[in-house]
Amino acid sequence: FFLYWLFRLRYWAVMSLLAFVICFPEQKDWFPLHVDQEDVSLSKKEYKLLTYNTMQFSSMKPHSAQSPNKVLKYLQDSQADIICLQEASCHTSSKYLQNEDVLRAMSAYPYQRVLPGKKVLNMWVFSKYPIIKCERIPFESFANASYYCDIKIDGKIIRVINNHLESNKLNQADKTIYKDIIDKPDKESISHVATHLNGKLAPAAVLRAKQAEAVARVIEESPYPVIVCGDLNDIPNSYTYRKMSKGLEDAWVNNANGLGITYHEHFFLFRIDYILHSPSIKTYQTQVDKVSHSDHYPLWTYFQL
Which alpha helices (H) appear in the chain, and where do they start and end? Predict the structure, then answer.
């Protein structure tokens, strides 16, 4: 676009360049580009952290050696040192995936914490390193939560905060309506759908803002370097993201390329899962794995302390 105007009209070329420069800080959060990757210290040990909204281990399908649950098989093969899961509830019936099945499948991780609850969708942290403290972050929510685990890694302690912030409560019918509007847009329908969706999105956004503020206080008061990960249910220019990422670095923005879509269903394609971290922690080779076991893609990164 800029080159076109450069040849056609210099004034508009300058205006295009100016607009790009002004928007660049926002653009890099949405679409980072890295021609050269930063050098990684060969003298420091590397670790891998993975975050994944599993959609109830893809609807709690049973797991066995002969017929593995696809989500659990992916986690077993990931070789991650720390795994943070959201929407990872199990069933009480042996016909479906149970907590005991998950613990057996994840036996390579001697340290684990699950945040259960009648109103909270299970969240797990699996670690190959000792979890010395774990605490829920208090905030108002219908079925979501955040909690932190202090993990001792080769003599150093980091605070890993696993998040599943307020969902927008969009059901299958809402997503179908949205898809229909994308396929066949018309003014009246767009206005109706916008009003309908806003009625769901606005209350959730208000709750997420308060939740983000609660998590931000824990980040600010942490005596250790932090890694903040999980499903924030919000986009990169949102208040939620800005509040929680203040003073931190975004692993995807730092060393990956492109949109980094993590949520994918019915034309809803967004980056809403994140790995944020203290500047003292170095991340590299951050990736989104395009596996279709859930409505989210898993996100992972290598890091050094």
Answer: 2-8, 10-30, 55-60, 70-77, 99-105, 172-183, 187-221, 239-245, 251-255
